[in-house]
Records
---
Amino acid sequence: MEDLKNTKIWKRNKNHNTIVKCNDVNFGEGFFTVIAGPCAIENSEMALKTAKEVEKLGASVFRSSLFKPRTSPYSFQGIGKEGVNILAEIRSQTNLLLESEVLSEEHLDILIDHIDIIRIGSRNMDNYELLKIVGKINKPVILKRGMSSTLKEFLFAAEYIIEAGNEQIILCERGIRSFDNYTRNTLDILAIPSLKELTHLPVIVDPSHSTGKRSLVPSASKAAIAAGADGLMIEVHPDPTKALSDGEQSIDFFTFEKLMKEIKKLLEIFDKSTIFKNELSN
Ligand code: PEP
Ligand code: MN
C-alpha cells in the first residue's frame, strides 16, 4: 500500500474520519445508516409501497435504480428515464433520500435533479472517466467495489473522485469473486476493518449482492455490523418471488422488519444507537 500513502483518501493524511452528510442523514463514525429498496424500480405502485414500508422500519435512503447493468442484454434493464416521475412521487410522499446507479454521463444528466446520492456500481468502479465526472458533482457518491478488485484498486478508484474535487465518498463492499459459487459473491468481511484502517472514508456493506441468497442476507448484515460497517444497503421487495431482477436475494417486508430489530439490538452493543430516522416501535 506504499503508493497510497500520498493520496487524499489515506487515513493518516487527515486528522479525523470523514462523515458524509446528506441533509439530515450521516454516513460515518458514530452513525449507522440503512439504505433499502428493490433491486430496481418496476412501477410506481411497488416503489411507493416499498419506500413507505422501509421508511417506517428505519431506513433513511431508498434504492431507486432506474438503469440496471445486467449480465444478459435480454434481461430487464430497468425502466429507464420514464421512472424519474416515480422518484418525484417518492420524494413528495416520504422523507427518504434517494440514491440511484449511473452507468454513464447520460444517466447522470437524467438523474441529477431527482436523486440525493449517486451510485457507481461494481462494473464501473474502474471507469475512470466516469469517476472523474462524478468527482465534479456536489453530491455524495456510493462507490461499490469492483467484483474482482483489490482493496488498493478500490481505494485508487475513490482517489479519482476525491482528486476531481468530491470528498463525499461512501465505500461499499459488495462481495468479490472467489472459487466457490455457492454464494453469488464472497463477502470480504475483513475489507471493512481493513478499509477503515487505510482510509478516513465511511464503509458500508451490500449483503444482497454479496450473498445472492435471501436466506443469507440477515447473517451477512449482522456480520458486517460486528466488523464495523457504517451502514448497509439491502434489497427489499414487496414480493421477491415476482421481482423483475434479483428476486432470489431480495427480502420481503416481514424479514426486513425482523432484521431491523436485530440490527438495532446489535447497534446498542456497538454504541451506535442513534441511527434510525424513525424509531422502531419495539
Ligand atoms: C446494484 O446495487 O444494483 C448492483 C448492480 O450491484 P453491484 O454493482 O454491486 O453488482
Ligand atoms: Mn440487484
---
Amino acid sequence: MSKEPLKVLIIGSGPAGYTAAIYAARAGLKPVLLTGGEPGGQLTTTNDVENFPGYPDGVNGPQMMVDLQKQAERFGTEIHYKLVTAVDFSTYPFKLTVDGKEEIIAESVIIATGATAKYLGIPSEKTFTNKGVSACAVCDGYFYRGKQVAVVGAGDSAAEEATYLSKLCPKVHLIVRRDEMRASKIMQQRVLNTPNIEVHWNTETEEILGDDAGVRGVRVVNNKTGEKKELAIEGFFLAIGHKPNTDIFKGQIDMDETGYIIVKPGTTKTNIEGVYAVGDAADKVYRQAITAAGTGCMGALDAEKFLAAKEADAVH
Ligand code: NDP
C-alpha cells in the first residue's frame, strides 16, 4: 500500500463501505478500502436479499457483495484484504495500523465496520444458519410466511421482529428469559395485544431441532420450574442484540454506552473532523443494507466536501 497519505480510507466492506467507495472513486479521490476480517460483511450470511430495490427477483447476498466490489473497483477503488488493528485520530493526517504492523496515513477516514448479531452460543444455531435460523426478521421473515416461527429476545428488536412476523406467520412464539421484557412499554403492549404472538416467560432455548430440510422445532426450558417443552417451528429468529464492530475506535471518537458511533444528526460526521461513520457501526435502529448503502453515499460526500474545503484553505 502507498506510503503517501491517502485522500480517503474506507474501513469495512459491507454495503456502506462499498457505496462510500463507489462515490469517492467517482469523485476522483482514489479511495483505498480495507475489507476487514469478514469481506462483504453480514450480507454474506444471507442467501436471498429480496428487499434491496432494483432486484425484482432478489439477489444472493454474497453475489451482491461481489457485484458491489466490482463496481467500486471499476471506478478505481484500491481494495486490500486487510484489517485495521489500531487508529490514532489525535494527529492529522490520521495514522492507522494495518494487520498489526503496517502504518498508513489518511486525510479522511470513513468507518464502515458494521455490527455483528449476537448468537446464543448453542451449536444447533450454527448448524441451521440459513436453514431456518436467522438474525434478521425483516430480511428473512418473508421466507417463513404461513409457517410457525420463534423469536428469542425481549428488547425493542425482539418486540419489533415478533410483531413484524405476526403479520406473515400464523403463530409466533416469543422466548423471553426473564418474567419481564426490556422493550419499551408501547412495543410490549403491541406484542401482548397481538393474538398470534405467544410469550413464553422465564424461558430459555436449549436446542434447535431439525434435519437436512431445516428447522422443525425448538426445545425450551422454563428456568423457574425446569419444565421442558418442544415448540413446532420452521423459523428461529435471534433478536438478542448486536455488537457494533467499533472496539478499535474506543477512546478515539465519541460512542454511546453500547459502542455505536455517534454522528451529528442528518450527517455522517463524528466528533473528529475528517472521520465519518456509516452503516451499522453508527445505526442501531434501521440496520438494513439499503440504509447502510445510503449512509455510505453520505459519508463519501461528507469526506469529499471536507477535503475540498481543506484544499481551498491551502490555496488561500
Ligand atoms: P437489547 O440489548 O435492548 O435487548 C436484548 C434482549 O435480548 C434483552 O431483552 C435480553 O434479555 C435478551 N438477551 C440477551 N442475551 C440473551 C440470551 N443469551 N438469551 C435470551 N435472551 C437474551 O437489544 P435490541 O437489539 O433489542 O435493541 C438495541 C437498541 O436498539 C436498544 O437501545 C433499542 O431500544 C434500540 N432499538 C430501537 C428500535 C426502535 O425504536 N424501533 C428497534 C430496535 C432496537 P434481558 O432483558 O433479560 O437482558
